[in-house]
Amino acid sequence: MKHNANHATARPNQRKKWPWVLLGIFVLLVALGAALGVTGYKFYKQALQVKDHEMAAVETVKQVKDIKNTMDPATLQKVIKPMQQHTSAARTIAHGGLWKLAAMVPVYGDDIRAVQGMTEVVDDLASKTLPEVSDTLTTVMSSDLSAGNGQINMQPVLDLKNAVNTANTQVQQQYKKMKNLPTPHIGLVKNAYDQALDQFADIADKLNQGNEMLSILPKFLGQDGQRTYLVLAATTSESRSSGGLGGSLGSMTTNNGSFQMGDFYPNTEFEGENSEVYTDSDKAVFPFSFDIRDQEADPDFNNVAKNVATIWQQSSHSTNVDGVMAIDPVFIQELVKLNGNVQIPNGPLLTGDNTAQFLLNDIYKDVYTAYQDEYFQYVASNVMDATFKDLSINKLVSIAKLISPMAEGRHVSFVSFHEDENKAFSDMGLTNGIPSDEEKPEFGMYFNQLNASKMDWYLHRNTQITRTSCNQDGSQTYHVTVTLENALSYEDYVNGPTYILGGGDLRGHIVDKMLLYAPAGGSISNLTVGGSAQIDDPQQGNLNGNGMIYTVANIAYGQNATFDFDVTTSPKAKEDLKLDQTPMGWTNTGVSYDTKACQLQN
Q: What InterPro entries does this protein map onto (predicted)?
């Protein structure tokens, strides 16, 4: 393959949601005062009982927060019965005579009706939706998806699709019912209602995404005719914004459930003028050739996919293309962990722990350059092939569970050229564009190695994101500190090959062009740089119509670079700020969040 030119991750603090805090009833009792007398105390006791039952129901639901448990009928059965007992009891109490009377009280009766409605929604979930899903899954999960010889049995897929569609329809109806409940007036009740509504919205949204994904899965598997997808295997030890330098390109086809993995070809087969696809903007920002190696320099994978398809169709391997997937060694390692170890002929045994290190670093030390492409192609082809062999519902669910964090970390990306299907992949986070959603703010930080080397294996990045203010217009401001460290060991610095370290004056240097994208509708300000490395003055730039800030950090052996800046979100932001960044050679993103300074207003 030719080349060109730990800090534990912490999630943003989440507002506590679920169960519904009924302490607002206490305030209601004060409002009713002496009119209730002794009855008020009884009502107060019942309110506590409703609260306790709902809390107990939520404790049982925690067992199915993992998608694998959600799809396990045995686990669902263990959850459903105790959950039904608690939700039914809460519903019965909340619809008793005292509650019906209190619901007629002007103004504050809205609070009672809201609590009643919430108990109805949860009880319907426990008594109707979950049992139906469990019954269907009991049948579907026992089905074998593999029909042998790379053929997938489509009927269980269709059955699962229909089961999830039914559940999704019911949950969306339940969510709509909750959303249309009377608006509570008492602060504590309203807060409980808002939190419950937020959580139910999250459940409804995730289930809807799953339903959307399953609805297009038969098409993806070629139910309506053959599909051809390209697979770009990239190495993040030589970074490009969307992932890494393109090492090899292959194809896979599906046809009415049959799956076939095609050959992978080294990037040397996609060189020359006919293999260079770029815009004037690309060339203005990057000193790359923009053959298959450099296409991921664009942080918008939608553009990358179109260009990769064009290069393929201009080559001797040209076929129709229905979509493009990019994978890196970290994703391959997760598939090895899922499918089982891979023994490379006359090479090492790759496991779920050592695959990424071997493909990103060790291979360049231990394997002759002439054989490296064969190793890459063998591993990528065998792992992808094994993923679709002996497919079961459990394995399909395991793959689904794996995809989301891998896509979020940009270790795998996928774009379908069928617009309706691509929306589902986009909702799953697989299409990996630049920041574009004002309500879900993120800023982008992307790296491109300018030294002809594999030095990004040694680039350790740590990012601290601290919310400093929640502004009157609804926006939020954060302070961001980024630390880049050249973690090259002395042994590797002395003994490492030029192929890894680079040559001449840049031996052992990490020379990365860094792009910073502000959140959609937001801004980046007060940028300062520091550390022992050489850093160019940051400049305002534009890549394919999108504004950004760029600089180049030249980090020699033992050096580091720091960047401090403020990020302000759009006033429309409804969530905490997140970072979208070029992947590293491991799953740890090196990002930590501190949001305790203030709470979101939207």
A: DUF4012
- The H or E element spanning position 393 is helix 393-408
In this structure, is the dihedral angle defined by the CA atoms of residues 519, 524, 529 and 533, taken in order, positive or negative? positive
H or E stretch covering 100: helix 97-102
The whole-angstrom separation of Cα 576 and Cα 490 is: 40
CA distance 84 to 126: 5
At 464-518, the pLDDT tens digits run 999 999 999 999 999 999 999 999 999 999 999 999 999 999 999 999 999 999 9
Domain 227-427 maps to which CATH number in 3.30.930.10, 3.40.190.10, 3.90.550.10, 3.40.630.190?
3.40.630.190
Cα distances (Å, whole numbers) of residue 309 to 421, 502, 585: 17, 31, 26
CA-CA distance, 191 to 579, in Å (whole number)? 29
CA distance 32 to 29: 5
pLDDT digits (tens, 9 = 90+) for 216-230: 889 998 989 999 999
Residue 505 is classified by DSSP as G
> With helix as H, strand as E and coil as C, how does 289-304 read?
CCCCCCHHHCCCHHHH
Cα 143 from Cα 335, distance rounded (Å): 22
The domain locations on the chain are: 31-221, 227-427, 435-594
The 3-class secondary structure across 548-598, one letter per residue, is EEEEEEEECCCCEEEEEEEEECCCCCCCCCEEEECCCCCCCCCEEEECCCC
User: Encoding tokens for residue 461?
Assistant: 């990045």
